[in-house]
């Protein structure tokens, strides 16, 4: 089992580091780490350092002796971004959690025309904060040191601009009558960026498909079954990671 990951605001510079606050409380009171156990400290931006617990004090203070210096995980290639239409209820957080555990690099919430959920005002700010907190916790749980970026909610016009700049742009589309290509056979770049749109439960509208097509995004399908919007992004990410060699 790999060592548990804890997030720090700044990477340590000396031979010892004191982990306190919420992360220290989780390490001491929840994980109940003891002297001699290994840990990994990260800023979630790709920088990380291994350490060994020197001492646990009180309920929220862990002294860690560092082993070696700070290291940096290379940027992934190709970079995978999923544009996720807003699902109903807490299924958005489920999508973020599973995509993060699988290995997605960025998530863009999309206010699609057929979305029932609306992110407006304080409600939207709270929902975005939940998505970002979910990505952070799922990144820790899956032992990642580079957490996915969760962007501000995007409009269809903004998504089209993102697709236009990608090295591979696609839209998951389940319409049997539509001329879609299996994602499993699509030509993928070895580097650069992949951007894939996952529509809402009601599907991507013809107007949105047209806007994305103009930006260079073709429709793709995963398989015979139709996945929910909260699981399609995870399945697609896994497929892309395998096909690009990032899983191997």
UniProtKB/TrEMBL annotation:
Cellular localization per UniProt: Cytoplasm
EC identifiers of the protein: 2.1.1.193
SUPFAM superfamilies (UniProt xref): alpha/beta knot, PUA domain-like
GO molecular function: rRNA (uridine-N3-)-methyltransferase activity
Pfam families: Methyltrans_RNA, PUA_4
InterPro entries linked: Alpha/beta_knot_MTases, PUA-like_sf, RsmE, RsmE_MTase_dom, RsmE_PUA-like, tRNA_m1G_MTases_N
Ribosomal RNA small subunit methyltransferase E methyltransferase domain sequence ranges: 76-240
Assigned keywords, A-Z: Cytoplasm, Methyltransferase, rRNA processing, S-adenosyl-L-methionine, Transferase
CDD domains cross-referenced by the UniProt entry: RsmE-like
Protein name: Ribosomal RNA small subunit methyltransferase E
């Amino acid at each position: 089992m790999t060592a548990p990951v804890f997030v720090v605001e700044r990477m340590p510079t000396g031979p010892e580091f004191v982990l306190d606050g919420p992360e220290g409380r989780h390490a001491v009171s929840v994980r109940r780490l003891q002297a001699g156990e290994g840990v990994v400290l990260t800023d979630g931006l790709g920088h990380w350092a291994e350490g060994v617990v020197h001492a646990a004090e009180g309920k929220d203070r862990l002294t860690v002796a560092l082993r070696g210096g700070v290291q940096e995980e290379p940027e992934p290639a190709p970079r995978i971004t999923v544009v996720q239409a807003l699902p109903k209820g807490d299924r958005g957080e489920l999508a973020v959690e599973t995509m993060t555990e699988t290995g997605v690099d960025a998530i863009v919430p999309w206010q699609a025309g057929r979305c029932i959920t609306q992110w407006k005002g304080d409600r939207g700010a709270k929902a975005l904060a939940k998505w970002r907190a979910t990505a952070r916790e799922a990144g820790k749980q899956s032992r990642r040191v580079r957490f996915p970026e969760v962007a501000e909610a995007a409009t269809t016009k903004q998504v089209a601009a993102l697709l236009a700049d990608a090295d591979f742009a696609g839209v998951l589309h389940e319409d049997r009558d539509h001329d879609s290509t299996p994602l499993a056979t699509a030509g993928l770049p070895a580097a650069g960026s992949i951007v894939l749109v996952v529509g809402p439960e009601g599907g991507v509208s013809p107007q949105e498909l047209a806007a994305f097509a103009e930006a260079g995004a073709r429709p793709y399908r995963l398989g015979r079954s139709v996945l929910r919007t909260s699981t399609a992004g995870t399945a697609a990410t896994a497929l892309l990671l395998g096909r690009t060699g990032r899983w191997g």
